[in-house]
Write the structure tokens for this entry.
Amino acid sequence: MRFAFVLCVLGALSACETVQPWEKGTLSKKEMAWEPDVMEANLRGQIHASKEASSGGTGAAGGGCGCN
Amino acid sequence: MRLFRYLLISCLCAPWVHAAGVAVGDNAHSVILPNLPDNGATTSLVDLRGKVVYLDFWASWCGPCRLSFPQLEALRTELGPDGFEVLAINVDEFEADALAFLEETPVSYPVVRDATGATPADWGILGMPTGFLIDRQGIVRKVHQGYRKNDGAGLRVEIVSLLGE
């Protein structure tokens, strides 16, 4: 039970926060993107795929409206 | 010991506890917010009772919002005389961003602003933009999430149907 209490306190202390859909203004800025230059990222991706014979696995979910 | 168990369960469940929001068939919640651009006055959703209202939550950083504004403006110009109104709620963090958007995409319908996030939380917004089509009695009849380029035609059919009720 003491362990459960410690776990509970640790959980409450964590900095995890759900970003609400209307709070994604900063996240949608260009400088917050994994790849600021989409064209260059695609080019690099193609070269990487041809060299490694594998592709994908570079995407990330995000954006409040599925657009940015 | 039992107290600890309750504490543990409530801590673990906390991330999944959300406000219920507004769904189809519910009465529209109260909205009273300052106008944008700020002229010292507020606009209230209740004042639009008797009209078919499209309540649109938007932000300047949201791509589909940019798409929706001219279409909503056209719908309002066409169907406004029959009793259709749009009320747009801006949720931008910075007012300047919203004003720059409105300068690029001017609209004649009322725009209000909620920088606190209380209104979108109260309405249970899951993505941007989200629109609520509210009938003349103040009941939510449709929740429209996102916006694609052909959505205006579908919306028009539903608005005309609600105006005829």
